[in-house]
């Protein structure tokens, strides 16, 4: 029997790096650096938490509107993160997956990601990173592909989403006290539980995820039934 109290797929909108830095009188870039540290610690601990897939919103298709310097900082952090953490992913059976229009990123990042995808293809837990991702674009493009196949149904659209090979989304967490989805996993969130926590992303530790998973296990999911 399926264990309904276990979250197999958890997604996180990592928010609050800027506010974390501002409160400490530090540059925003430091907030993002600490945000990467929080990612690293979390990825190290998910294997022990029984989660099959962790999906992180790292860069939205709207984030290009940020000042160029900040976009550059985020891209450089991405480069550094892949370079430094790839061996650890391979050693810990983490399968990297990228969702979003990532082929539109800088050519060197695309090449690094292609290599990382190849090296981690055999992993048993998935870390899905959303890069240049927007849910409305994802749904529109999946619907267009479904139409081209001659069959427009919920199943055929879902089969063309970036997440087609992932377990259904169980739990969506957003940090920093903001209560909105910001164009993230709109289709996939249809029956997901939501957790909005006040913690700013750089302060989000594995204990916070444990807490969210405990709360999830207490909830009764109805999927529209009674
Ligand atoms: C939100 O903070 C966070 C982001 C825009 C990006 C999240 C990115 C990281 C944690 C670093 C890169 C990730 C990886 C996987 C290498 P914000 O700047 O919107 O904060 P604010 O709302 O307080 O200003």
Largest sheet: 6 strands, parallel
Alpha-carbon distance between the two ends:
20 Å
Question: Helical amount among residues, as a percent range?
Answer: 40-55%
Strand order of the largest sheet: 3-4-2-1-5-6
- Described by the principal axes of the CA atoms, the overall outline is globular
Chain-averaged pLDDT: 95
Number of helices: 7
Question: Got a strand count?
Answer: 6
The stretches of 5 or more residues where confidence is low (pLDDT under 50) are: none
Integer-rounded radius of gyration: 17 Å
Order of helices and strands: EHHEHEHEHHEEH
Structural class: alpha/beta
Bound molecules: farnesyl diphosphate
Strand content: 15-25%
Describe this structure in words.
With 226 residues, this protein is α/β, with parallel strands linked by helices. Helices cover 44% and strands 16% of the residues. It contains 7 helices and 6 strands. Helix 4 (107-120) links the parallel strand 3 and strand 4. It binds farnesyl diphosphate (FPP). Farnesyl diphosphate binds next to helix 1, helix 2, strand 2 and helix 3.
Question: What topology emerges from the helices and strands here?
Answer:
Layout lengths: L8 E5 L3 H7 L4 H22 L3 E8 L7 H24 L2 E6 L7 H14 L4 E9 L1 H14 L5 H5 L12 E4 L18 E4 L9 H13 L8
Parallel strand pairs: 1-2, 1-5, 2-4, 3-4, 5-6
Helix pairs in contact: 1-2, 2-3, 3-4
The structure holds farnesyl diphosphate.
């Amino acid at each position: 029997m399926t264990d309904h109290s276990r979250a197999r797929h958890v997604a996180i909108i990592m928010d609050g790096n800027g506010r974390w830095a501002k409160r400490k009188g530090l540059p925003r870039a430091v907030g993002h650096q600490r945000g990467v540290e929080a990612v690293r610690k979390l990825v190290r601990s998910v294997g022990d938490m029984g989660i099959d897939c962790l999906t992180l919103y790292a860069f939205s298709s709207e984030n290009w509107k940020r000042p160029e310097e900040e976009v550059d900082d985020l891209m450089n952090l991405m480069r550094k993160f892949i370079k430094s953490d790839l061996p650890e992913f391979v050693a810990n059976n983490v399968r990297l997956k990228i969702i979003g229009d990532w082929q539109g990123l800088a050519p060197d990042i695309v090449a690094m990601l292609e290599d990382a995808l190849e090296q981690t293809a055999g992993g048993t837990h998935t870390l899905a990173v959303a890069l240049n991702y927007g849910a409305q674009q994802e749904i529109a493009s999946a619907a267009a592909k479904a139409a081209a196949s001659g069959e427009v149904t919920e199943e055929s659209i879902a089969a063309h989403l970036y997440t087609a090979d992932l377990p259904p989304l169980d739990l969506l967490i957003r940090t920093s006290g903001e209560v909105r989805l910001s164009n993230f996993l709109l289709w996939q969130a249809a029956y997901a539980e939501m957790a909005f926590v006040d913690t700013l992303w750089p302060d989000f530790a594995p204990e916070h995820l444990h807490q969210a998973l405990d709360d999830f296990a207490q909830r009764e999911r109805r999927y529209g039934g009674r």
